[in-house]
Each structure stands twice: as C-alpha cells, then as structure tokens.
Design goal:
Strand order of the largest sheet: 1-4
Number of strands: 4
Structural class: mainly alpha
Number of helices: 10
Strand content: 5-15%
Distance between the termini: 23 Å
Largest sheet: 2 strands, antiparallel
Length: about 280
C-alpha cells in the first residue's frame, strides 16, 4: 500500500491536470477576492465582507472532481498501469484505496487553494468579516466531507470504466446533472406559499389613471406534503445540493450540519464498498 501511495503521489505532482486544477481554483479565489474590492471602490458606501465569498468555489467542485478523477485515473487504465500493479502482486483493494486517497488529497488541495486565496487576498483587500469563525470552520468541515463523497462516487465510475474518454465524459455529464438537479430542487423549495397582495396605480398614454389590485393568493407552484419532504431530503442528501447550499451559505449548522456530513459519509462508504466489490471482479484484460 505504501509503495502504491508513493507512486501515485509522485505521478500526482507531475500531473498536468492537477496543476491546471490548482490554477483554476486559485483563479476562482482571485476573482472572488478582487471583484467585491473593485465594487467597493466604485460604489460609495458599499462595504463587502470577504467571508461571503469563501465557498463560491463549492458550486464548481463537482465538475472539478469529475474532470480530474476521470482523466487522472483513466490515464492509469490507458497506460496499463493498473494491470501492471496487480501483476507485480498488489491486491485490487490496495490499488483501489490508493487511488481513492490520492484523489481525495488532490481535490482537497485544490479546494484549500481557493479557500486560502480568498482568506489572504480577500482579507487584505476587503478586510471585513461578518460571520463567526466557528460557523466558517463548520462549513469548511462540511465541505471537506462532501468533497470526499464526490471523490468516492466519481472514483467508482472511473475505476469501473476502462476507457478514459468514456469515464471522463460520463463523470462530467453526471456532475452537470448534479448541479442542474440541485438548482431545480433549490428553486422549487424557494417558492413562496402565497403571493403577496399589491396595488398598482399608473397613467396610460391617454392620461387616464388606471388602478389594479391583486389580493393575496395561494402559489400553485408551492410544494406541500410528502413531495416537499422528499425534495428537502434530496436537498440535504445529494452532494451537488450540499455544494450549492455551501456556495450560498444557506446551511443552518445547528440543525443540519451533522445530518449533511452523515449523508456524505454514507455516500462515500457506499460508493467505496461498491467500487471495491465490483473492481475485484472486473476483467482487466
């Protein structure tokens, strides 16, 4: 196992896709830090808080995970590295777990790059912090566990599909589906139960004053009952939905923090167990 890890990390430091991921997450952090600073210079009386942008990168991390793991692991298949590791005596479980560990470490380094960039650059340029340190630390821990779940899921795909291009495309498509589903669920749950009453008064082209009044009414798109409970469960359970909540900093850590992390750990353990089970039975010839 230690030899596999050393080989994987040696390849990681030389991996072009890894360093591209580092540059990408640094770029997102740079934009998240400099944009509010420029706005504060242009808008009088506007005082942004840099900590509001600390988790903006979370929205894109499912795609980053899919691209990196699909290409990094897929290269091992295309080069015959995985088969060679097994031929020289390494167990399939050891190969799987070594790939999982290096994938998680790589993604967390990318995520940390973004976080540190915003803390250092945003904290220097903007200098205003709004949220308690404890809250930000808990959000950071939730993001780490969610990323572990994403890595476990995308590694499952990449280790079971030999073709690097097929595995990468499949992972990327799924990552976009995660985000689209997350946005759809969040949009549905955000619908108000009632439309507020309002009164309009305006003058038309002929000079006649026209008044319109609408009473408070039920929103037909508001979700209720079991359907709402299912949507709320999916919003907390799916990794893409968790990352969207992190990006918007909408998580009530006192009520949902432990639950979200428990769901992510369940996904990570289940995906890893399935991956090891099927990889041990996979024909690598």
């Amino acid at each position: 196992m230690s030899k596999l890890l050393r080989a994987n990390f040696t390849r990681l430091w030389k991996s072009r896709i890894f360093w591209i991921g580092i540059l990408y997450t640094f770029g997102i952090g740079f934009l998240a830090s400099t944009t509010p600073y420029r706005e504060s210079l242009e808008i009088e009386g506007y005082h942004p808080h840099f900590d509001n942008y600390l988790f903006t990168n979370s929205l894109f991390m499912p795609i980053v995970c899919a691209v990196f793991i699909g290409l990094f692991i897929g290269t091992e298949y295309s080069n015959g590295t995985i088969r060679n590791k097994i031929i020289v005596g390494h167990t399939r479980s050891a190969v799987y777990f070594s790939n999982l560990i290096v994938s998680i470490v790589a993604i967390l380094i990318m995520h940390l790059t973004n976080f540190v960039t915003i803390v250092l650059l945003g904290g220097t340029l903007v200098g205003n912090r709004e949220m308690p340190i404890a809250y930000l630390i808990i959000l950071g821990l939730i993001s780490i566990v969610t990323l572990i779940a994403l890595c476990s899921f995308f590694l499952l795909i990449s280790m079971l599909i030999k073709s690097k291009s097929t595995a990468s495309v499949a992972a990327i498509i799924i990552s976009f589906v995660f985000l689209l589903v997350a946005m759809s669920i969040a949009s549905s749950l955000a619908q108000p139960e009632y439309w507020d009453a309002y009164h309009l008064s305006f003058t038309d082209e002929s000079g006649e004053v026209i008044e319109e009044s609408v009473e408070r009414q039920k929103n037909p798109h508001y979700i209720t009952g079991i359907k709402r409970e299912i949507y709320e469960f999916l919003n907390d359970f799916l990794p893409g939905s968790q990352m969207l909540q992190l990006a918007n900093q909408e998580i009530d850590v006192s009520k949902s923090g432990v639950k979200l992390s428990a769901y992510s750990l369940l996904i990570a353990v289940s995906a890893t167990a399935c991956g090891v089970f099927f990889f041990r039975r996979k024909n690598l010839n």
